[in-house]
């Protein structure tokens, strides 16, 4: 079935069967591989994208449910002020270790700072709880979010 998607500010027509996860359309059809497959059951956060500005797990978001939505992936998240601040903080603090989960971490961090520009440590931990990092860089991720908050405040 042919669907029209608005992804990263561009319109794309894709051919996908109903029930196809958005993740596979992004990666396989549109060749944007920054969004990662982690678990396939929305438990790890590696596949996080923004749907109308809200973080969602693309492995459990079906293509037929997003036709009229604005979808943003890691490839375009730096185009706005919050995304740019998060990316700057990640680089400044060398947050990434292996990097596999980091696109999902960044997308969730942007979601958090969009809702709460000055989160406490507890609020960061609560919000980011659904994002797994196999390298356990949670302290650096938390510090990156705090630094991004400072950048946004300046």
Automatic annotation (TrEMBL):
Any Pfam family the entry gives: Fer2_2
InterPro entries: 2Fe-2S-bd, 2Fe-2S-bd_dom_sf, 2Fe-2S_ferredoxin-like_sf, 2Fe-2S_ferredoxin-type, 2Fe2S_fd_BS, Beta-grasp_dom_sf, Diverse_Oxidoreductases
EC numbers on record: 1.3.99.16
Molecular-function GO term, any one: metal ion binding
Domain 2Fe-2S ferredoxin-type: 1-77
Enzyme kind, highest EC tier: oxidoreductase
Superkingdom of the source species: Bacteria
Keywords noted in UniProt: 2Fe-2S, Iron, Iron-sulfur, Metal-binding, Oxidoreductase
The keyword Iron-sulfur is annotated on this UniProt entry: yes
Matches recorded under Gene3D superfamilies: 3.10.20.30, [2Fe-2S]-binding domain
Protein name, UniProt field: Isoquinoline 1-oxidoreductase subunit alpha
Species whose genome carries this gene: Ruegeria denitrificans
Lineage: Bacteria, Pseudomonadati, Pseudomonadota, Alphaproteobacteria, Rhodobacterales
Encoding gene per record: iorA_2
């Amino acid at each position: 079935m042919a669907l029209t998607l608005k992804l990263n500010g561009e319109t794309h027509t894709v051919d996908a069967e109903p029930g196809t996860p958005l993740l596979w359309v992004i990666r396989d059809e549109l060749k944007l591989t920054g969004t990662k497959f982690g678990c396939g059951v929305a438990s790890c956060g590696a596949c996080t994208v923004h749907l109308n500005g809200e973080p969602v797990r693309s492995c459990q978001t079906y293509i037929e449910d997003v036709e009229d939505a604005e979808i943003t992936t890691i490839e375009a998240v730096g185009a706005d002020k919050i995304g740019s601040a998060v990316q700057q903080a990640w680089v400044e603090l060398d947050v990434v270790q292996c990097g596999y989960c980091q696109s999902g971490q960044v997308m969730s961090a942007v979601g958090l700072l969009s809702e709460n520009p000055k989160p406490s440590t507890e609020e960061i931990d609560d919000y980011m709880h659904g994002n797994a990092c196999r390298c356990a860089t949670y302290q650096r991720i938390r510090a990156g979010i705090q630094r991004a908050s400072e950048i946004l405040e300046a």
